[in-house]
Design brief:
Structural class of chain B: alpha+beta
Number of strands of chain A: 5
Number of domains of chain B: 1
CATH architecture of chain B: Orthogonal Bundle
CATH class of chain B: Mainly Alpha
CATH topology of chain B: Cytochrome-c3 Hydrogenase, chain B
Largest interface: A-B, 51 and 47 residues
Structural class of chain A: alpha/beta
Radius of gyration of chain B: 22 Å
Largest sheet of chain A: 5 strands, parallel
Distance between the termini of chain B: 19 Å
Number of helices of chain A: 5
Chains: A alpha/beta (160), B alpha+beta (397), C alpha/beta (160)
Strand content of chain B: 5-15%
Largest sheet of chain B: 4 strands, mixed
Oligomer: heterotrimer
Chain lengths: 160, 397, 160
């Protein structure tokens, strides 16, 4: 009995540590669902010295299997729809989605074209929307930080 | 640094363009057939960013279409808008005023600078030179600041309106541009040194992806890719548009035909752009920024070709007397260059393919497609990232 | 070569082969030719590398007009020479130019999937831009294309 109790406690602790470190240092995977690349180059710029998103503990990673956050651009073209779904499915929970740019939010100037799905949330649930055409790197970072902050708050409320 | 599977990754980060996941079944966008290490056939399926733009233009007004055309490509947004505007102005028989045309040239050259520096960084990353990526993108921020001061946006500047431009050059902006250009020119000397003398860089570029002048012309490549093979072709010179008949450009042509030559062309074009910008600022015509445009555009056809950073950009616009276009046809420079690259890859080592592709400066979303390799041993699907690392490792061993 | 010289040379190459030549703009020369003359005239234009095929524009002139037109644009310095080929909408067939211009395959693939034109002798009939699951027989750039038809409608509302 005591052993089970100890195991549960241990799991809880480990669970707490893992979630906390995820919140403090999220692994981000990027997906372009058919954008003009305007948003993508501003996201890329966040890695460069002037913006240096890594100082917030954000890491851009290659594989969705290790990612906490999916950062998406583009209106979701037909060709990319299924891929987007699969990437999301490959991510372990808890997973979060940031939609960057007007196209990712609503389809932007391409809205209602036969070739697009009108934005990320027509395919997968979105947690944070970062508007702009494109949003500047600071806005992208702000979106990620807001996501992290809301996760921290949710965590604190849970513990309280 | 491990990637979680205990494998060392040579680079510090992954350039976040497009999807990356090895095990996913998806239509292969590039297909290379290999015999051992050598590519014996190559083909491509594009369409990853197919947004149905040409069709959508038929149900938008000319003004709405302008906003859409700016976003065909976020890297060369201005030349798209300029080409479209020039077509509509031709149809309406309206000429944008001289000051507007000069500002179009100014923004176009600023865009060329940002685009070439962007490409320099991405090309460096493809070869495994991440320090050069960081430096060039840091310097690129200077021109991003200038574009933002001048037009209000860092990307998708929307400088054009049908009939002219909507941003103007003040004294303060003029000073900011000149100071920025001075700084960038100094830095560009350093980049020139790297692409022409750094041994590790040259190993990936000298003698790689060579295209003779005859091949380049037969394959119909355009832009710096063509000029690196001695083809004397630059629309700003051959068929001047906007204010390029007043602010004359010198073609930058190299004879080497290999990747090194293409790098040199783009770096030298930066110097030429700095010169043009100074000339424009010294001789900016006074006057209006816009000419009156009718809302309904009379029936007709217009064609405009402009020199985008990547080469010849082609626009065809057909009007039918209403306020909506009847047909808009866009042919970006990456299409003919892509076709040429597929031809060129044949006979090369697989390890050279990432750099050959980077050398044409494609819209870099094309660089992260999945790749199918067909060989005697069977079919295999790689991610672009795997192909890129294969190239880096091949030359590091 | 100046623009004037280009125009003179264009006329010299075209006159023996075509019925009529127009100059719709100072830097443009147009010639309307039947489909079976396409290869001969194209060859004359690209001989000695004097010009190159820039792209091919497809036009659906409408159900009423009953015709489609294909415009082959050849760049010769400042001059653009366009060969115009009209075909009946009910049976649109044109010959491939890939035999003399191998890189035209990308343009021809686009025409086939967007207009439903048959291009005889073209080496690659795979789709270029449209996705795998796009229904056969549906051509987006035709004027009677209906984006609301059920086979191509894709979910555009927020995912559940």
């Amino acid at each position: 009995m005591a052993e089970t109790e100890n195991n549960n406690l241990l799991e809880e602790i480990i669970d707490g540590i893992t979630s906390w470190s995820r919140i403090n240092s999220p692994w981000v995977v990027h997906f372009n669902s058919g954008s003009c690349n305007g948003c993508d180059i501003e996201i890329l710029a966040t890695l460069t010295p002037r913006y240096d998103v890594e100082r917030f503990g954000v890491r851009l990673e290659g594989s969705p299997r290790h990612a906490d956050v999916l950062i998406c651009t583009g209106p979701v073209t037909r060709q990319q729809r299924e891929r987007l779904q699969r990437i999301y499915e490959q991510m372990p929970e808890p997973r979060f989605v940031v939609a960057v740019g007007t196209c990712a939010i609503s389809g932007g100037v391409f809205r209602d074209s036969y070739a697009v799905c009108n934005g990320i949330d027509s395919v997968i649930p979105v947690d944070v929307y970062v508007p702009g055409c494109p949003p500047r790197p600071e806005a992208v970072i702000d979106g990620i930080v807001k996501l992290l902050t809301s996760l921290k708050q949710a965590k604190e409320e849970q513990v309280a | 640094m491990n990637n979680g599977n205990g494998n060392k990754i040579a680079n510090k980060f992954v350039v976040p363009i497009g999807p990356q996941h090895p095990a996913l079944k998806e239509p292969e966008h590039f297909e290379f057939t290999v015999d051992g290490e050598t590519v014996i056939d190559a083909t491509a399926r594009l369409g990853y960013a197919h947004r149905g733009i040409e069709k959508t233009a038929e149900s938008r007004t000319f003004v709405q279409t302008l906003y859409m055309m700016e976003r065909v490509c976020g890297i060369c947004s201005h030349v798209h808008a300029t080409a479209f505007s020039l077509c509509v102005e031709k149809l309406a028989e309206v000429e944008a005023p001289p000051r507007a045309q000069a500002i179009r040239v100014l923004v176009a050259e600023l865009e060329r600078i940002h685009s070439h520096l962007l490409w320099l960084g991405v090309g460096a990353h493809e070869a495994g030179f991440d320090a050069l990526f960081m430096y060039s993108w840091r310097d690129r921020e200077v021109v991003m600041d200038i574009l933002e001061a001048l037009t209000g946006n860092r990307v998708n500047y929307s400088a054009n309106v049908l009939g002219g431009v909507k941003c103007d050059v003040t004294d303060a902006i003029r000073d900011q541009i000149l100071t920025g250009i001075d700084y960038l020119e100094e830095r560009t000397h350093h980049y020139y040194d790297v692409v022409t003398t750094d041994a590790a860089f040259l190993q990936r570029t000298r003698g790689v992806g060579t295209m003779t002048k005859e091949q380049a012309m037969r394959l119909g490549v355009v832009g710096p890719t063509a000029r690196g093979s001695g083809v004397e072709q630059d629309l700003r010179v051959d068929a001047p548009y906007a204010a390029y008949d007043i602010f004359r450009v010198n073609r930058v042509v190299e004879q080497g035909g290999d990747l090194e030559a293409r790098f040199i062309v783009r770096v030298k074009e930066l110097f030429e752009s700095y010169r043009i910008i100074r000339e424009v600022l010294d001789n900016l015509p006074e006057g209006e920024l816009t000419a009156r445009m009718p809302r309904r555009i009379k029936e007709g056809e217009a064609i405009t070709r402009v020199e985008a950073p990547r080469g010849e950009l082609f626009y065809y616009v057909r009007s039918n007397g209403t306020d909506m276009p009847d047909r808009v046809k866009v042919r970006t420079p990456t299409i003919p260059n892509m076709a040429s690259v597929l031809h060129l890859a044949i006979g090369h080592q697989l390890a050279d393919v990432p750099m050959i592709l980077a050398g044409i400066d494609p819209c870099f979303s094309c660089n992260d497609r999945s790749v199918r390799l067909k060989s005697a041993g069977g079919d295999d699907v790689w991610t672009w990232e795997k192909l890129r690392k294969y190239g880096i490792d091949y030359y590091n061993d | 070569m100046s623009l004037e010289e280009r125009i003179t040379e264009a006329r010299a190459r075209l006159e023996p082969l075509v019925e009529s030549i127009e100059q719709p703009a100072p830097d443009r020369i147009d010639a309307t030719i039947p489909a079976d003359k396409l290869l001969d005239v194209a060859s004359a234009l690209i001989k000695d590398g004097w010009s190159y095929l820039t792209t091919i524009t497809g036009l659906d002139l409408g159900v009423e007009a009953g015709e489609m037109a294909f415009l082959y644009h050849f760049s010769a310095g400042a001059l653009l020479v366009t060969l115009r080929v009209h075909v009946p909408r009910s049976e649109p067939i044109i010959p491939s130019v890939c035999g003399i211009i191998p890189t035209a395959t990308l343009y021809e693939r686009e025409l086939m999937e967007m207009f439903g034109v048959t291009i005889t002798g073209t080496p690659n009939t795979e789709r270029l831009f449209l996705p795998e699951d796009w229904p056969a027989g549906v051509y987006p750039l035709r004027k009677d294309f209906d984006p609301s038809q059920p086979e191509i409608v894709v979910q555009k509302d927020a995912a559940e």
